[in-house]
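Budget justification, computational time. The allocation requested in the original proposal was used primarily to generate structure tokens for proteins on the priority list. As evidence of use, we reproduce two of the resulting records. The first is shown immediately below.
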Amino acid sequence: MNLVDLPSDIQNMIEKRKRAFSYYHEELIGEHRFLSEDQTIFQDAVIALSLGKNILLKGPTGSGKTRLAESLSSFFGQPMHSVNCSVDTDMEALLGFKTITQNDGASRIDFIQGPVIKAMEKGHFLYIDEINMAKPETLPLLNSILDYRRMLTNPLTTDVIQAKETFGVIAAINEGYVGTVPMNEALKNRFIVIDIPYVQGEILKDVIKQESKLHDEKMIEQFVRLSSDLLVQVKSGIIPEEAASIRALIDTCDLAVYMDPLRAVRRGISDKLEEEREKAAVVNIASTLFK
């Protein structure tokens, strides 16, 4: 089912969101196109957001989770505020912080809004990247904005913020990576989960043409084959998932425009790995393709 085949009530919800931001032109909105063999991924994300649901994008690094979030922002014409989580992500990184300012010689304390409060008050999208990298004690702050209440009592100011109707949350997660922690079930249950698989085949060719500087058809074919062969090694446990990252592949394709492709593979993929045997496995595969 194409987007044009969506039920009329969903299409009305989409149009209502687009009209809400038809006047708004901000650098947060970009022209991005998410590509996937599974056409239902984008459609299901659109439906969920139109219904006021939060969506959680699950997939390996470089699979296009951020690109999907950007494409959704562009589709709705709705600005998006981002949080990149890490072990250092705390309440201030999410909500904002207090600072002392000078006004006509007098000092006062102002509150600088963080991405969560900005998105709530403006009715924009909030994108939380690597949500399972944040400290577990930080994330419960988000519970009340992710359920039917759509509100937050700011512990830094005691203000109560009620999100605008168009406010929506998109989060992304890489499971099993170093530094990540299992998501609390109460938090995960507040999301609609969408799996983002690796891009392969003809779709990957289109991604390379769209995202990289490489235009040599034969070499693009070789890099698509490289990606496929690396995935086989990942599934066999010989090399880690990051070796098959589409993001790393795009970087490598860019380098291959200006250097020998085998050297580009070393710089863009194999040298990022820790184990010598893993590096050797990647180089051996690449050597059979780029003679």
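The second record produced under the same allocation is shown here.
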Amino acid sequence: MYRRRRRSLLLGLVLVAAAAGGVAVARTGPPPTPPPTALPGRLPQAAGAGTHAAPQPVPSTGAGRFAAAGGGTSVQGEDGPLRRYRVVVEQGTGQDVDAFAASVDETLADPRSWIGSGELRVQRVADRAEADFTIYLATPVTSERMCAEGGLSTEGYTSCRLPGRVVINLARWMEAVPDYGAPLSVYRTYVINHEVGHEFGEGHEACPGPGRPAPVMQQQTYGLDGCLANAWPYVDGRRYAGEIIP
């Protein structure tokens, strides 16, 4: 009887001390699984989350045939001549033509884009006969071939513009360029505005000075020359430009 009471008393003291010290009393059964340990520079993976798949390589070549985005948009812009465009994507690239068209539409309808002048309007159409120009998303091999037809050498690396054709290099669309210093979305907006700017009659421009925004007509794919990445021709409601390069 005394021993039982002594054991009960001792057990009670242990439990009280454990509770006072913030120590959890283990239950019977196997110990709980410890949480994952974060590696240096990494966050612990959420429970049930799988590992991220490695980025898919960009195909260097495709079918050479293009699928066009259906439908169209309303007229964007306040006034001026209307320039209609259509959007196509090379087949075999794994790219969704409607998603690419949506990116193009969003860029060209933004008031910081070319309609910001108030003297130009744009609209996407599906019918080739109604389009003034076509925007292509093409693999490096196909884009190089298309650009070479107009006498332009891109070495399969850059995008280009020919009369009535804006050719966006798929590798640049998916990867941008090294040391661009801005997210991929910024580069994508830049390359659309740059090449469409050529279609609207704009020439190349130089960086106006270190630390300043790069003009959208600067060849930012080849480097920023001390400027900062910029995707828009209109900044703070005004046309932002650099010195014209002959």
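A brief technical remark on that second record: Residues 66-239 form a domain with the Collagenase (Catalytic Domain) fold (CATH 3.40.390).
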